[in-house]
Design goal:
Layout (H helix, E strand, L loop, with lengths): L3 H11 L3 H14 L1 H14 L7 E6 L5 H7 L5 E7 L2 H13 L5 E5 L11 E7 L8 H11 E12 L26 H11 L3 E7 L2 H20 L3 H24 L8 E7 L1
Parallel strand pairs: 1-2, 1-4, 2-3, 4-5
Antiparallel strand pairs: 5-7, 6-7
Helix pairs in contact: 3-9, 6-7, 8-9
Length: about 270
């Protein structure tokens, strides 16, 4: 399944007005389980920092939903959000100007090449590494770009069924992925190679999360891939599944998992 065309279609719908884009971000925050996990880690990081100037890098910003959420926590935080897609960067800059978030800038950058030494207190790489073959180079650049004591947070599929791959004959559900998922020890070793010395890694998307992902993401994406007419039925579909997914997301994000199809990794310089 090629995910980018569906993402572009969603963007075309929700980019029409700032109000629709805000609504889109709020829906993503509720539906995407990774967001529940990432927000939980970011809230911990933000404790005691909201009144302090902080420089943040959103590395592979995509739609910009994490930049939007973070920029709403403190006007003192300066956020640079980078992505390789020119149109998406231009749309995001326009949106953040429209809503008056002056502490945000989007820029076109290739993470394999981008490095801004000793500049950031926090870097995010949310569902990015599985799209980049040269992942150690990216990790090395992020390490160099962090200040001493700065933190990197990564969300990515694991090798325990991430990308919906459960056997040697399975193909990744998202065809843009260059790897199906990381072994938890492998990603920690790659971060050490990149220069990080303190690393914490844990599984996300345990059993509750896997059920939620199928209900909230996999099946709707498959249906949208078959026909854009499903956009009309989407609100009715979520009217039924949305409450179930909320409960499952809460269960997954508040539980410790011995295994899971996702990984949440934190690393400090």
């Amino acid at each position: 399944m090629h995910y980018d065309p569906i993402k572009r279609s969603l963007g075309n719908v929700f980019n029409r007005t700032p109000w629709l884009r805000r609504l889109f971000y709020n829906l993503l925050d509720l539906l995407l389980l990774r967001t529940w996990h990432v927000h939980r880690e970011l809230r911990q990081w933000a404790q005691g920092r909201r009144d302090q100037p902080q420089n943040i890098l959103d590395a592979g910003a995509g739609y910009g939903q994490y930049t939007y959420w973070l920029s709403g926590l403190s006007e003192k935080w300066q956020i640079l959000a980078v992505d390789v897609k020119d149109e998406q960067v231009a749309d995001s800059n326009n949106f953040f100007r429209q809503i008056g978030r002056r502490n945000v800038q989007f820029a076109v950058q290739d993470l394999v090449l981008y490095q801004q030494p000793n500049s950031f207190d926090l870097a995010l790489s949310i569902d990015v590494m599985e799209h980049i073959l040269e992942d150690v180079e990216v990790m090395t650049n992020l390490h160099a770009s962090l200040k001493d004591g700065g933190m990197l947070i990564i969300s990515t599929p694991s090798d325990q069924g991430g990308s919906d791959v459960h056997g040697a004959d399975d193909a990744s559900f998202i065809e843009e992925h260059v790897r199906d998922g990381y072994n938890i020890d492998e990603i920690q070793q790659k971060l050490r190679t990149a220069g990080f010395d303190r690393i914490e890694a844990k599984y996300s998307y345990g059993l509750p999360g896997q059920i939620s992902w199928r209900l909230s993401m996999k099946w709707p994406i498959l249906m949208l891939g078959m026909s854009k007419a499903f956009f009309i039925l989407l609100p009715f579909y979520y009217l039924v599944t949305f409450p179930i997914c909320l409960v499952l997301n809460w269960l997954d994000s508040t539980s410790r998992h011995d295994s899971g199809t996702g990984l949440i990794v934190k690393a400090w310089k």
